[in-house]
Structure formats: C-alpha cells, structure tokens
C-alpha cells in the first residue's frame, strides 16, 4: 500500500463515493449488505495493522480501496455508470462499504 496523506486519502474516498452514487444507498437491504462488507473490511484492517496505524483511518481505507480497485481492474471489472444497488456486485458493495466507513470515521473495530 502506498503512503497516503490524510487529505489526499479523504479526497480519493469522497470522489469514489460520488462516482458510486452512495447518496442513493438508503434502502435497508442495500445498507445491510454494505454494513456486512464494512464489518469484513474492519476485520481485514484490524489484523496485521499496528494499533498506532489505525489512527490514520482514511489513509488505510483509501489504500484498501485502491487495492480492491486495482485487483478488480486486473479481472476486467469497471465501475458501473449507474449502480443498480439491489443487484450490486461484490466489488461495488465492498467499495461502498469502504466509503461508508470513511464517512463514519470507523476504519477498524475498537479494542
């Protein structure tokens, strides 16, 4: 993961959120799926990350999102022009969860 400055990380996550159209993710079923992905992301970030690094939540989340985007692109995934949230794919839900966590300021579970 490359080193991100907090401001750059937040700008990246805000732009990703806008591209995904997260303002529309209000349906309970979709929000539940995003929350499940968020819990998985928190678990991933909590394992193998020193506790002191967790303070840089936006930086970790942006790095994680970049990794998901890079891996998905290698497999031919492209962000949908318009997300059909009830039928969103794993990658879209995972990225939505990362953005949602960043907005809530919760990159990892509390110890």
TrEMBL record:
Name of the molecule in the record: DUF6401 family natural product biosynthesis protein
InterPro entries: DUF6401
């Amino acid at each position: 993961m490359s080193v991100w400055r907090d401001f750059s990380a937040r700008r990246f996550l805000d732009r990703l959120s806008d591209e995904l159209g997260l303002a529309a993710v209000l349906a309970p079923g979709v929000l539940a799926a995003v929350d499940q992905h968020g819990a998985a992301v928190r678990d991933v970030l909590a394992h193998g990350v020193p506790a002191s690094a967790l303070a840089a939540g936006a930086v970790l989340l942006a790095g994680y999102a970049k990794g998901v985007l890079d891996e998905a692109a290698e497999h031919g995934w492209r962000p949908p022009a318009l997300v059909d949230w009830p039928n969103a794919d794993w990658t879209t839900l995972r990225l939505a969860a990362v953005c949602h966590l960043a907005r809530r300021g919760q990159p990892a579970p509390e110890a």
